């Protein structure tokens, strides 16, 4: 994709703070980090999101995430790690080249977890029923 920001980063047409690369994946520092060391891990082949990426390529991407996450934690002396993926604008996706966020967390970083959206009476069963039905093959 010629005009994709992350494709341009992978091709080194736009500079990035690359920290890891292999045949299929590329990892670099997010320019607006939640915490210092916040990484983006991307497949080298352009795909938009979770719906677009073939399962084997997603598995390959997650292999890199699985390899890097504990190294990030140890190298930055983090207390925890968030792994995230935003898909579509409603979920906060801003760059439409699939990517996984690896976010080092610190006990005193002041970030809060998401506000909850609690179930009212009986709602949890209805949602469970809808999803069990959707997962039926
Ligand atoms: P999304 O919201 O799509 O999941 O995340 C996109 C991420 O890309 C954001 O966290 C944003 O800070 C990061 N980002 C946007 N433009 C650039 C850039 O030019 N360079 C780097 N390194 N990160 C970027
Ligand atoms: Zn791309």
Automatic annotation (TrEMBL):
Q: Name one Pfam family in it.
A: HIT
Motif Histidine triad motif residues?
97-101
**CDD domains linked to this entry:** HINT_subgroup
Q: Which domain of life is it from?
A: Bacteria
UniProt-listed InterPro entries = HINT (IPR039384), Histidine_triad_HIT (IPR001310), HIT-like (IPR011146), HIT-like_sf (IPR036265)
- Tell me the GO molecular function terms: catalytic activity
**GO BP term, pick one:** nucleotide metabolic process
Domain (HIT): residue spans on this chain? 5-112
Q: Active site: which residues?
A: 99
Name of the protein in question: HIT domain-containing protein
Q: Which organism is it from?
A: Candidatus Lloydbacteria bacterium RIFCSPLOWO2_01_FULL_50_20
């Amino acid at each position: 994709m010629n005009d994709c920001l992350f494709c341009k980063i992978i091709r080194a047409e736009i500079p990035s703070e690359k920290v890891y690369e292999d045949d299929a994946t590329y990892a670099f520092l997010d320019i607006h980090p939640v915490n210092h060391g916040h990484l983006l891990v991307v497949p080298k082949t352009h795909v938009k999101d979770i719906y677009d990426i073939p399962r084997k390529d997603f598995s390959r991407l997650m292999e890199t995430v699985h390899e890097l996450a504990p190294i990030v934690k140890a190298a930055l002396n983090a207390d925890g790690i968030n792994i995230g993926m935003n898909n579509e604008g409603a979920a906060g996706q801003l760059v439409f080249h699939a990517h996984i966020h690896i976010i080092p967390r610190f006990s005193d970083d002041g970030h809060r977890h998401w506000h909850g959206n609690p179930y009212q009476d009986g709602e949890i069963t209805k949602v469970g029923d809808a999803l069990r039905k959707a997962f039926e093959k």
